[in-house]
Amino acid sequence: MAETEIDDRLAMDAAVVGDQLTANDLAGGFRFLMDQAKALEGDVVQAPDVATSQAIGRMQNQLVKRAAELNAKSIDLLTGQARITAEHINSAVAAAKSVIDRIANIQRKLTKLGAVLDFFAAVLTGDGRAILAGAQDLKDQLDAA
Questions:
Q1: How confident is the model over 125-145, as a mean pLDDT?
Q2: What is the C-alpha separation between 14 and 81, in angstroms, rounded?
Q3: Helix, strand, or coil here: 115?
Q4: Distance from chain centroid for Cα 105
Q5: Number of H helices, E strands in the chain
Q6: Is 9 a residue whose pLDDT tops 70?
Q7: Is 53 exposed, middle or buried (0-12, 13-18, 19+ CB in 10 A)?
Q8: What SS3 class is residue 139?
Q9: Burial class of residue 7, CB neighbours in 10 A (0-12, 13-18, 19+)
Q10: CA 75 to CA 25: how far, in whole Å?
Q11: The whole model's pTM is what?
């Protein structure tokens, strides 16, 4: 994403002192991550080799860990950065779900789930600029073949 596109998106309302993403705001992300970890159980059984099975297990652990991080506390938004809302987060989750649920190839699925983890890492920072950039990166990864 070009820097000017990020700057244009930051024209949205700016966060003020006290703006947060609460566990309730992030509940959709939490559920999505937990659902994806559970869905990978079937892929472990069908894994073509031990290395793939181990990669799936690592992804499951990372998904559960990130879900716990989202559920652990409210995330203070950085003042002056974009005011990110539950609607923004849920929109990204819906886009990821619509793509990931249709992927049969486990390596592609793991790659897309890695992009979801990266997005939520940005969310955890509370930095509107980083979250918007993370959302664009997630979109790019979801759109990639």
A1: 95
A2: 5
A3: helix
A4: 20
A5: 6, 2
A6: no
A7: middle
A8: helix
A9: exposed
A10: 10
A11: 0.90
pLDDT digits (tens, 9 = 90+) for 54-111: 999 999 999 999 999 999 989 999 999 999 999 999 999 999 999 999 999 999 999 9
Place of tokens 């955890």: 124
H helix or E strand, kind and range, residue 80: none
Give me 75's structure tokens. Answer: 């995330």
Residue 65: how many other CB atoms lie within 10 Å: 12
Distance of alpha carbon 110 from alpha carbon 86, whole angstroms = 25
The two tokens of residue 90 are 């849920």
Residue 89 token pair: 């987060």
For 12-37, give one letter per residue: b (16+ CB within 10 A) or e.
Answer: eeebeeebebeeebbebbbebbbebb
Question: Token digits for 40?
Answer: 């990978």
Rounded-to-integer distance, Cα 85 and Cα 21, Å: 7
Of 138, 137, 134, the residue nearest 125 (C-alpha): 134
79 token code pair? 């003042």
